[in-house]
Write a sequence for this structure.
């Protein structure tokens, strides 16, 4: 496995478009904490509460993710949402609207988390935008229990990639393979996210959506454990060119994938 890496120095800013945080809004905060504590070894401490109960997940004292509680009257889909870095959230939100996307929340100030917004692309996939200040996002990577990759699952890549390129300035790297529609999004030459066109394989009940991968030491064991804890395995662990991967839901139905890097 790779060694732990601090994602940014104490005063560093993520380059625009770089995934900098993942957050989950759930109905039962305490039960959700218990699931991820058992699965990933996370500990929790309170985060900003101006939008309701919210905690930050820590691994060995480093912040790795956030979990908030949905208001009882909001029957929104429970899903992991990646936040993409911006130097100017207000300008980015305006660009989202101009390019056919929607801004559902904000832009607004979120205490020490900086300024943020929640938006969706023209295909309906939800993502966050974050202009960090004191809180600069996920503080560690490369070890089990940390976010490893974010991937947009959509019907086809061409139109939606143009949206993200315009909004965040990504460089596009298509995968030249017959029958496989995949584009890697790069920032300053570094791969930061992927867009996977799955055609009619897109779940009808979810539509286009972002999928977060978490690094684990043993993908098969993690999926078994997730099922034992009340989750559901959607795709069994299997080998890929990037490692052994699988997809699961937590007890409330939030979908995420796990990846075990090659030894």
């Amino acid at each position: 496995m790779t060694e732990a890496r601090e994602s940014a120095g104490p005063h560093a800013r993520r380059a625009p478009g770089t995934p900098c945080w993942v957050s989950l809004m759930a109905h039962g905060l305490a039960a959700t904490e218990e699931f991820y504590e058992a699965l990933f070894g996370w500990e929790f401490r309170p985060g900003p509460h101006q939008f309701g109960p919210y905690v930050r997940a820590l691994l060995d004292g480093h912040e790795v993710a956030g979990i908030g509680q949905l208001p009882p009257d909001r029957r929104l889909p429970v899903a992991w949402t990646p936040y993409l870095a911006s130097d100017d959230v207000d300008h980015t939100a305006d660009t989202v609207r101009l390019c056919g996307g929607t801004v559902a929340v904000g832009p607004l100030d979120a205490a020490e988390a900086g300024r943020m917004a929640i938006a969706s692309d023209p295909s309906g996939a939800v993502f966050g935008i974050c202009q960090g200040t004191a809180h600069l996002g996920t503080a560690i990577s490369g070890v089990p229990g940390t976010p490893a990759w974010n991937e947009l699952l959509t019907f086809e890549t061409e139109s939606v990639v143009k949206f993200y390129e315009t909004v965040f300035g990504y460089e596009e790297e298509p995968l030249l393979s017959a029958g496989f529609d995949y584009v890697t999004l790069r920032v300053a030459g570094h791969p930061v996210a992927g867009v996977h066109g799955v055609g009619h394989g897109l779940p009808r009940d979810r539509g286009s959506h972002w999928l977060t991968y978490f690094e684990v030491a043993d993908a098969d064991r993690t999926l078994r454990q997730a099922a034992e804890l009340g989750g559901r395995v959607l795709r069994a662990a299997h080998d890929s060119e990037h490692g052994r991967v699988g997809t699961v839901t937590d007890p409330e139905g939030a979908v995420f994938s796990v990846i075990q890097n090659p030894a």
